[in-house]
Amino acid sequence: MNILILQASPRAKGSTAWMAEEYKKAAEAAGHQVTLVNVSRKKIAGCLACEYCHTKGNGACIQKDDMQELYPLMAEALVLAAPIYYFTLNAQIQAPIQRMYCVNKPAKVTKMALLMSSYSPGVYDGATAEFRDICNYWEAENMGIVTAKIDEQKTDATLQKIIALAGKL
Ligand SMILES: Cc1cc2nc3c(=O)[nH]c(=O)nc-3n(C[C@H](O)[C@H](O)[C@H](O)COP(=O)(O)O)c2cc1C
C-alpha cells in the first residue's frame, strides 16, 4: 500500500518528527511504500475561498505554492502527524488539509491515522473531533490515533503504540 505521512512540526528532532519516522519504519518493515513530507518546511498558504477551483479552475487551485507537490502524492493511506498548539492541530497541518477544498476530498485516500504530541495531558479533544469528522467526510477509515504528552515522548510504550497502529494497515 502507498502511504503519505504529512509531518507538521517545525522541530526536526521533536516528538512529532520522531513519531512520524517510527511510523514510517514500521510501515516499511511491513512492506508498504511510504512517503514522508515535512509540511512545516513547505510554503503552503491557507485557502483563499475564492472558488476558482469550483468554477474556472475545474478542480485546480489558483494558488501555485508548494501544495502543488502534495496533490499528486495523496496515497491510499494518509497519516497526519502534528503537535498540539493552543488545544488543536497546528497551523502547518491545517493548511494542507484545508487546501484539499479544491478536490473536496482526496480521491485515493481510504485510510487515515493521526499522530499527535503535546506538553500537557487532556488537550487532544478538539483535534480528535476534527480528525474523526474529516475521516467521515472523506469517507476514509479511521485507523486510529497515537498521542504523546511530555512524559510519553520517544518512549518504548509510545513506540509500541505506533508499531501497532502501522500494523493495522
Ligand atoms: C505555539 C505553541 C502552542 C502550544 N500549545 C500547547 C497546548 O495548547 N497544549 C499543550 O499541551 N502543549 C502545547 N504546546 C507544546 C507542544 O505541543 C509540545 O511541546 C509538543 O511536544 C511539540 O511537539 P514537537 O516536539 O514535535 O514539535 C504548544 C507549543 C507551541 C510552540
Describe this structure as you would to a colleague.
The protein has one domain (about 1-165): 3-Layer(aba) Sandwich (Rossmann fold), CATH 3.40.50. It has five helices and six strands; from the N terminus they run βαβαββαβαβα. It has helices spanning about 15-30, 65-70, 90-100, 125-135, 155-165, and strands at about 1-5, 35-40, 75-85, 90, 110-115, 140-150. Strands 1, 2, 3, 4, 5 and 6 form a six-stranded mixed β-sheet that branches. α1 packs across α5 (about 155-165). The longest helix is centred in the N-terminal third of the chain and has 15 residues, at about 15-30. It is globular. The N and C termini lie close together (about 10 Å). The structure holds flavin mononucleotide. Flavin mononucleotide binds near residues 11 and 14.
Summarize the structure.
The protein has 169 residues and is of the alpha/beta class. The chain has five helices and six strands. Strands 1, 2, 3, 4, 5 and 6 form a six-stranded mixed β-sheet that branches.
Which second-level CATH architecture applies? 3-Layer(aba) Sandwich
Number of helical stretches of at least 4 residues = 5
Shape, per Cα inertia axes? globular
- Give a list of the ligands: flavin mononucleotide
* Named CATH topology: Rossmann fold
Helix and strand pattern: EHEHEEHEHEH
Mean pLDDT: 98
Helix and strand content put the structural class at alpha/beta
CATH class: Alpha Beta
Largest sheet: 6 strands, mixed
Structure summary, number of beta strands? 6
Cα-based radius of gyration, to the nearest Å? 15 Å
Low-pLDDT windows of residues: none
